[in-house]
Amino acid sequence: VELRTSRIRLRPFREADATAFASFCDTDGYRRYLDDNHPDAAKLVTNNVGVDGAWVVELDGSVVGSVFLGDELACLLDPAVHRLGIGTEAARAVIDDGFGRRGYTEVVARADDENIASLRGLQRLGFTRRADGTYRLRRADWEVH
Ligand SMILES: CC(C)(COP(=O)(O)OP(=O)(O)OC[C@H]1O[C@@H](n2cnc3c(N)ncnc32)[C@H](O)[C@@H]1OP(=O)(O)O)[C@@H](O)C(=O)NCCC(=O)NCCS
Q1: Per residue in 40-69, pLDDT tens?
Q2: Ligand 1 atom at shortest distance from the alpha carbon of 89
Q3: Residues flanking ligand 1, CB < 6 Å
Q4: What's residue 90's pLDDT?
Q5: 27-40 pLDDT, tens digit each
């Protein structure tokens, strides 16, 4: 499966993607709000080859990040393309596929309280904060979006 939006393509992981991820996975802009146990580029790719819901984001034919929708939604982009709306655009396509083809009824996300880009993106997509600190979006609310 492949997803497309006006600017980007989302496609499954391939082993050969490790080099592209290695070019930005160690930057502070990428890692700042991630746990210390976030995998390095090689492991990130190996862990996700063949996994439905694990997407590589391509912009103009280049790999610029990833989006995951498993138990939770996560989006991780090369800092070189931050603040262009790519994260929101990519997440929207993945959520749509989750509620449609994959049959999700709710999408759950987490964001560090200081990760403004992530919080703003979730808000823009219609997520609401719950008492347990998670952010949630129900399919019923997405359909009327
Ligand atoms: C979180 C992330 C995916 C956001 O992607 P992005 O493409 O840069 O975000 P967008 O351009 O779609 O911006 C989303 C909103 O945040 C705002 N924003 C983005 N970066 C911002 C910043 N540094 N400071 C303040 N606001 C910011 C945008 O203006 C936009 O708000 P709006 O819709 O009200 O205009 C990206 O910053 C990233 O990959 N960060 C590193 C990895 C990470 O921490 N991921 C989140 C955990 S899963």
Answers
A1: 999 999 999 999 999 999 999 999 999 999
A2: 12
A3: 30, 33-34, 74-77, 82-88, 115-118, 120-121, 124
A4: 98
A5: 999 999 999 889 99
As a whole number of angstroms, the distance between CA 76 and CA 86 comes to 10
Q: What's the whole-number mean pLDDT along residues 22-29?
A: 97
- CA 72, CA 2: separation in Å to the nearest integer? 20
Question: What mean pLDDT do residues 110-114 have?
Answer: 96
Q: Ligand 1 pocket: which of 28, 44, 68, 118 to mutate (most atoms <8 Å of CB)? A: 118
- CA 56-40-87 angle, to 5 degrees, is 35
Burial class (CB in 10 A: 0-12, 13-18, 19+), 50: exposed
Residue whose CA is at the smallest distance from ligand 1 atom 43: 76
